[in-house]
Amino acid sequence: MSDKSTGRQETGQIDTVMQEERLFPPSAEFSAQARVRSLEEYQKLWEESTANPEAFWGQLAQEELHWFEPFHTVLDWNEPVAKWFVGGKTNVSYNCLDVHLTTNRRHKAAIIWEGEPGDTRTLTYLQLHREVCRFANGLKSLGVKQGDVVSIYMPMTPELVIAMLGCARIGAVHSVIFAGFSAEAIADRNNDANAKIQITSDAAWRRGKQLPLKLTVDEALEKSPTVEKCIVLRRTGAEVEMREGRDVWWHDLVDAQSDDCPAEPLDSETTLFILYTSGSTGKPKGIRHTTAGYNLYAKKTFQWVFDHRDEDLFWCTADCGWITGHSYVAYGPLSAGATQLMYEGAPNWPQEDRFWKLVEKYRVSTFYTAPTAIRAFIKWGDQHVDKYDLSSLRLLGTVGEGINPEAWMWYHEKIGGERCPIVDTWWQTETGGIMMSPLPGAIAAKPGSCTKPLPGIVPKIVDESGREVEPNHGGMLCIAHPWPGMLRGIWGDDERYREQYWTKVPGMYLTGDNARQDNDGYYWIMGRIDDVINVSGHRLSTIEVESALVSHPQVAEAAAVGRPDELKGQAIAVFVTVRDAEPNDALAAELKLHVRKEIGALAVPSDIHFTATLPKTRSGKIMRRLLRDIAAGTEIVGDTSTIEDYSALAKLRDDEE
Ligand code: PRX
Question: Which of the four pLDDT bands, split at 50, 70 and 90, describes residue 6?
């Protein structure tokens, strides 16, 4: 354990208590055929990229994107406003589709799709191009123009991607809203964005039931006065009411359209999309991304991190309602000419083995999912995995939260057959693409670490005064230089953008996460700045306490929060879901002992609450803020005798994300 000086608290540094020494280098075989084959090669690439970022990104932009008109300036940086590839004209839909039509990818599958009920469709690049053109022409026929905002609330069908690309083709701005949000949330977002068009479907399949998307949209549109038209995809066949003059069926709209719709040459900084994410004040923020820089960043990071090869079948399980679905379902893989699997439904429908069944059926080679899903697989039991042949997999990835080292080990052994590298990718809605991750052929993994920055990315860990902290001390994670995929602002709120990301630490982008670097230069994300637990002046990270708990064989998932304590300032309260043990006082005592052994007395929780499930956001993140409130409530403190289902409470905070 690290030495604790009282000065630490004033500087805002964080104490680290976790020791993770395991190292997993890629096999010689994997490295031999990788894009980046060794640590030395990675280091050279990173050093070149950061020594002269503009030359680096400028050259890549020329090579990787199609330019209707060339750019004259790589970066115009006037903090906090970045303009990349100034003067150039390109089109994201062109870069995802048209560029492949003159190559041998023309008839290659772009999307292999399976619906939740088991229906399937495959779209080649040529077919996808045709559908996108027809839909884009459909949008034009409704009067949609460059800069108009199109709000998309759809299930994970190919049409969701077609809608996004259709907008990109004509310069309309899409705002995808995850199809689990309430009518209120849709209306809030539509109003903030001044959305002109809504796209939805009759309903969506979810665990064998139909979610009435159109009904929810009808309610939302009552409160979305700017929306003029609503396009409705027939997905399940559910009966819906079509409002005369406002609602139009997708098939009626596109049936009459020509499949010729030239991609509009757009300025590099044309807004491509806005994507809403929560802010600490509760009012959702429309994170704004633009055309050329985002496109380049999604494409290159996809190729680097997933070591993409033409013969791969890539599967990212994220919904297009999140940034992961934007960058690694829609734009990254398609720009790179990849073939991807897209799945509509839940991982546990009709059974908990659905994902593995899909991997075996389609021979998936690269699989990218979230820690929350991995922890669910662990809880559901190995029997669901063991039935299937997963030997097609060659690379695994995770994103969205820190992965507890023991969950990493399970993923490595059970899913990866101890043969597949794991890329633990750290990034944010705001960053547009992956910022830190192992390059799988070059960088040995350590379970729980996102390892090193990607080319062109310069992370810094600083204390409250903005000074860089020493290795092995936690601090605020910042990014020192602009990068092409960075957000360009918050929709309609320049001041909030500046205030939130660019004021606290001068000259750097503030991520809002804490992190530390170890002696090998590896980065370890320590959770959100707001979640730090302060016990007797020692500032502890949530993930370290949680990972210690998850390393106990009976613990499936854990969340750690601070609650007020008269003596210590804060005491640690943990919420734990168990695998199949009896949750009782004896187990609680054992868990405390376990944490003491693993990471020390300081991190021993004062309260242990057993829970059937943890409250999560819709994208699967543990809602620590909510748990903090629960932990502070006196009625449940110290009570370990009952299992609560706190996830029910999460539903009360309906639209928090
Ligand atoms: O706290 C970090 C966590 O998720 C946050 C970003 O969330 P969001 O904008 O919803 O984007 C998620 C998908 C990119 C980060 O600030 N996070 C994401 N990936 C990781 C992570 N924490 C630890 N390790 C990761 N790999």
Answer: very low
